[in-house]
Amino acid sequence: MIAPQNVEKTLQAPVTAIVAHDLRFYDELPRLFPHVDARSWFVGNEPLVDATAFRNGSLQGAYLILAARALGLDAGPMSGFDNEKVDREFFPDRQLRSNFLVNLGYGDRSRLHARNPRLSFEEAARVL
Ligand SMILES: Cc1cc2nc3c(=O)[nH]c(=O)nc-3n(C[C@H](O)[C@H](O)[C@H](O)COP(=O)(O)O)c2cc1C
Fold first, then answer.
1. In CATH, what number is assigned to the domain containing residue 31?
2. Using CA positions, which residue lies closest to atom 18 of ligand 1?
């Protein structure tokens, strides 16, 4: 279910979060976005539901990583796993779709990798 390089750190982590999106998120819109009938934009429009849920779920996952690190925790996001198997095991009603996993805890400094190189702003962004 998990890629070989991710097994040990996941077993060691006190918590592994599954960042997943809810394909029926639009049922909450009458409460969360009450000034228009936003639910009706999504009902029956599967491509729009998938894209919107994936986009917003990815943002929430990134905020989870930032929040954990702001609290002094280490957060190790992982996409190396079998989403289909995780979904079958943890979300059997198929309403939630896993995106990525995040190991949370206090890492062993002596075993953490050094920070990877980063692209410069000029390489990563195009100013239009
Ligand atoms: C969405 C995502 C998926 C990742 N998947 C894996 C993974 O499956 N295995 C792994 O060892 N590292 C993976 N990484 C990279 C590590 O988690 C990396 O060490 C960590 O992101 C480093 O910290 P940074 O977020 O400051 O770059 C992934 C990173 C991201 C953002």
1. 3.40.109.10
2. 76
